[in-house]
Specification:
With 141 residues, the protein is mostly helical. Helix 2 packs across helix 7, helix 5 crosses helix 6 and helix 6 packs across helix 7. 28% of the residues are buried.
Length: 141
Amino acid sequence: MADKLQSALDRVAAATVELREATQALLAQLPDLGVLGGCVPENPEATFTKVVRVTAEIYQISVEDLLSKSRCQPIATARQMAITIVSELTGMATQPLAERFGLADHNTARWALNQIRARRQNERGTRAAYAAIMARLATGS
């Protein structure tokens, strides 16, 4: 049983490395304007604003809803996705993320990051939403 569990954990770790490498490869292909048109890392606030706006559009909710304390779906999922992407693009730590998104504490931000990472592993829809947001950010639309 322990061998099967270790094997499964090894596969998850390998898939995580592959996803990170794929994301880095995509970001490396962007024009030489800095990541996302020059807004990262020089201007994390602009990155935050763009990510929130694009995420709200992709999930078809308002920016106000995304930044609210609502726990209903798909608002909570959209917020978790925005937290994850802001974290990845800016390197912002969980405490500042929590403060910026109006969360209770850094553990809530950490939980959101873990949720999206796990869902990207297991859910095609989450991977598609992530890819759509990143593509929109990369093209500036």
